[in-house]
Amino acid sequence: MGSEPDRKQKTSQPMWRQLIRLSSDRGDSLQSQLRRALVTAILDGHIPHHRPLPSSRELARQLGVARNTVVHAYQHLMDEGYLLAEERRGYFVNSELVNSRLARAPQPVTSDAESPDWEKRFLTRPSKQRNLDSLLGRWRDYEFPFTAGQTDPAMFPINEWRECCRQSLAVQAITNWMPDSVDNDDPLLLEQIQNRVLPPRGLWVSTDQVLVTMGAQNALYILARLLINEGDKVGFENPGYPDARNIFELRNCELIPLDVDENGLVVDDRINECNVVFCTPSHQSPTTATMSLERRQELLRRASEHDILIIEDDYESELNFAGTPTPALKSLDGNDRVIYVGSLSKTLAPGLRLGYMVGPEELISEARALRRLMLRHPPSNNQNAVAHFLALGHHDSLVHRIASSYKQRWQALDDALTEFMPDSSRAPAFGGSAFWVQLPDGADADEVQQEASENGILVVSGNPYYMDPVPDEAFLRIGFSSIPAANIRAGIEKLAGLIK
To answer: Could you give the C-alpha distances from 416 to 88, 427, 443, 494, in angstroms and in order?
Structure first.
């Protein structure tokens, strides 16, 4: 039987099995889990500084893991400065590292004065703008996620992406992207956008005409800040992309609604009074219409005649699997009136937030200077990894696989809508990732979206796409990029039942 001090020493030791919970079902290794748990325990003050941690053999026994798992975790924490090894005594928490952290929150300075009246302080209220429902951020929670703008995780090329990340983590690569690039972009990425991404859209430009952005939306914000002044008239597709509309509204401009039909943006005299026109000619968002060549030529003619700038969002241009490829509007522009905006989000991964804009050198130079004030430059490590992904041909291969998969889903959704909602839609001739579906007379798109959500179906109301709060006709945007083809028919059958 142990002595009283021995028993006191044992009972005062941390309850390691409660402090550290490991699971082989998680995505990371047991060693990574152990290191994370130990760091958390050390920084939260749960491990006394004056007592040694269990030996690697003892901790491995308590946690039910291999001894090497603990040995490597301890060694890593020593390298990081969290632990110190004392000969014949064991591993101890490095008190200098822990003591450098604040032990408690400082006492706040208070007075009798009231807190700021934030309602009066805000110069603008972006949260009050009409936008897409926040439910879209939880699309994985739905049995039938008919949403667009998200990629199917099963299609992400994990091995190819890891290969590119490894290349970007080579010593020389890290040396190149680690410093603050100020306002510069990764040279390899600019080269790949110039030589791989743009030529299929009919664009041949110099790298001085390209700026990398944090997604297409960042490009639109920069352009709105540079080119749109208070009181300017901005032509905007109606229906159109809500986030772009909201960005322009922040400039206190006058939005001119421009109709859209089966041939895309309607080019009429309303355009003549605009300073800027925003359009999605290749694959109109949300109606999926492709702008005809005749209308493109007429739009460019009017732009030259009335001194209009055109912002072209080449939305989902790479997802053309159902129709004849059409070159970008900018490829027809001989007078530098079109600023082209593109993105890699819809094919590679939305979370990478990498897009680009193409325009005359004078514009790109000013956009680069403005981007520097906003965020300096997109993360250089992401830029470099994506550059390798493009250079090694992985992106072209991925686009081919996505197009093949999306075509099956496109056909499955068209068949299901024809069977259960025959009067509602027409398959987009271009391809893309969504259908624009008209609801029966008297239906309210917001109510249908809410009812569907409560029954495990995620669809998007068409109302936020319109400039008027309540459009005359009700539409749903039904996407297929993130739902398996095998689930589409059952989801549409259930949705049709709810609508009826």
So the answer is: 72, 11, 20, 11
* pTM higher than 0.90: no
Longest CA–CA span in the chain (Å) reads 99
- Domains (range + CATH), the chain: 14-99 (1.10.10.10), 133-149+397-499 (3.90.1150.10), 158-392 (3.40.640.10)
Q: What is the pLDDT of residues 237-276, one digit of tens each?
A: 999 999 999 999 999 999 999 999 999 999 999 999 999 9
Extended strands (E) in 193-303: 210-213, 233-238, 254-261, 264-265, 276-279
69-114 per-position pLDDT tens digit: 999 999 999 999 999 999 888 899 998 887 776 566 677 787 788 8
Q: Are 98 and 49 contacting, i.e. CB atoms less than 8 angstroms apart?
A: yes
As a whole number of Å, the CA-based R_g of the chain is 28
Structure tokens, 321? 């699997």
Q: Given a cut of 90, is residue 366 above it in pLDDT?
A: yes
Q: The tokens of 65 are what?
A: 């893991």
Q: What is the pLDDT of residues 174-205, one digit of tens each?
A: 888 888 888 999 999 999 999 999 999 999 99
User: In terms of C-beta density within 10 A (0-12 exposed, 13-18 middle, 19 or more buried), how is residue 263 classed?
Assistant: middle
Pairing mode, if any, of strands 309-313 and 338-343? parallel
Res. 2 pLDDT band, cuts 50 70 90: very low
Query: How many Cα atoms occupy the beta-carbon half-sphere of 383 within 13 Å?
Result: 25
CA distances from 354 to 29, 341, 380, 479 (A): 30, 11, 11, 22
Dihedral, 261, 262, 265, 266 alpha carbons, nearest 10: -60
Helix 485-499 and helix 394-420: axis angle, to 10°? 40
Q: What is the DSSP letter of 458?
A: E
CB-side neighbour CA atoms (13 Å) of 268: 12
Helix, strand, coil shares, percent, the chain, to 5: 45, 15, 40
For residue 210, give both structure tokens. Answer: 């390209």
C-beta of residue 383 within 8 angstroms of C-beta of residue 459 = no
Q: What angle do CA 394, 397, 401 make, to 5 degrees?
A: 130
Percent of the chain residues topping a pLDDT of 90: 60
Average pLDDT of the residues in 313-333: 84
β-strand pairing of 309-313 with 276-279: parallel
